[in-house]
Amino acid sequence: MSVPTTDVFRADLFKGKVAFVTGGGSGICKGMTEALMRHGCDAVIVSRTQSKLDAAAKELEAATGRTCLPVAADVRNPQEVIAAVDKAMAKFGRIDILVAGAAGNFLAPAEHLSYRAFSSVIDIDLKGTFNTIKACIEPLKQSKGCVINVTATLQYAGTPMQSHAASAKNGVDALTKVMAMELGRYGIRVNGIAPGPIEGTEGITRLMPPNMTADYINTIPVRRLGTIGDIEHATVYLASEAGSYVTGTVLVVDGGSWMNQNTPMWMGLEMMLQQGPRSKAKM
Ligand code: COA
Ligand code: NAP
């Protein structure tokens, strides 16, 4: 299990800095935000649901003593993202660390996936990541900041029922490399973090039925699910000076799980195809 990031990294690592985090109101990206704030950062968290963001911002401020600005925006809409960046700049005057983590996913075999459903996930995960990076380029040039794209490992194989998310995350990984090439000249580093199965998150609830957890854990080389704390450590490392010569790469934090393709998706494909479109998989 992971120890607190302050056991490993200096507590004032990000003092005076500001993080802009899409998806920061819940799950993994909320944990990433809390880790950055714990080390001295202020933060802006962005997603579609203002009430969720307001509650999360209060929790993050209480946990860290730093300031968190909650801003509602849909990453699919460039104008809303630009407006969120403007609000961040009006409040804090800088953005040093961009975490692009907003995403959507569900299990669906391609033959049961509507054209609109495929587009929705591409629009959120891939185009949303592009929209967010592009809107933050000027502030990041000023701060010589860094970008962390939250990706995944399911695109490393032909993971069943993930044509939409695998295509989107592969695109995100391509974007990580291209943006690292283009933005390095401004002192901006661009990397990705690819979480494996992280316990207690919306992602794992959607992709892995609870009755499959024990069998699945036996297929993971380190024999446990990941924690949000595991992703926090990777975030602090990449955003810190310790990562200053690291760009254009994806840090996989998955206990080695992607190397074993015995995932719930592989195990559940036949069942889901038999159950039909939009079935809640009871695998
Ligand atoms: N299986 C198959 N299709 C699905 C689906 C599912 N479980 N859930 C949604 N869809 C389809 C919808 O039917 C719709 O297609 P249609 O108009 O042809 O019927 C399309 O996806 C868009 O759905 P909608 O609910 O209108 O989209 P949205 O933009 O509000 O939501 C989602 C985006 C679908 C990705 C939604 O799951 C979401 O908001 N997720 C965010 C949280 C999340 O997924 N967290 C885990 C991150 S790993
Ligand atoms: P989560 O809590 O559902 O996080 C997704 C976030 O994205 C939510 O806060 C959601 O908030 C926001 N979002 C969705 N659509 C949006 C949109 N159109 N515009 C703006 N914000 C939007 O899920 P999670 O499991 O923690 O996943 C976080 C990240 O980790 C994702 O990038 C995911 O792909 C990645 N990941 C997770 C796992 C895992 O095991 N959980 C594994 C691999 C990768 P709103 O609904 O309020 O908009």
Automatic annotation (TrEMBL):
<dbReference type="InterPro" id="IPR036291">
    <property type="entry name" value="NAD(P)-bd_dom_sf"/>
</dbReference>
<dbReference type="GO" id="GO:0008670">
    <property type="term" value="F:2,4-dienoyl-CoA reductase (NADPH) activity"/>
</dbReference>
<dbReference type="GO" id="GO:0009062">
    <property type="term" value="P:fatty acid catabolic process"/>
</dbReference>
<dbReference type="InterPro" id="IPR045017">
    <property type="entry name" value="DECR2-like"/>
</dbReference>
<keyword id="KW-0521">NADP</keyword>
<dbReference type="GO" id="GO:0005777">
    <property type="term" value="C:peroxisome"/>
</dbReference>
<protein>
    <recommendedName>
        <fullName>2,4-dienoyl-CoA reductase [(3E)-enoyl-CoA-producing]</fullName>
        <ecNumber>1.3.1.124</ecNumber>
    </recommendedName>
</protein>
<dbReference type="InterPro" id="IPR002347">
    <property type="entry name" value="SDR_fam"/>
</dbReference>
<dbReference type="Pfam" id="PF13561">
    <property type="entry name" value="adh_short_C2"/>
</dbReference>
<keyword id="KW-0560">Oxidoreductase</keyword>
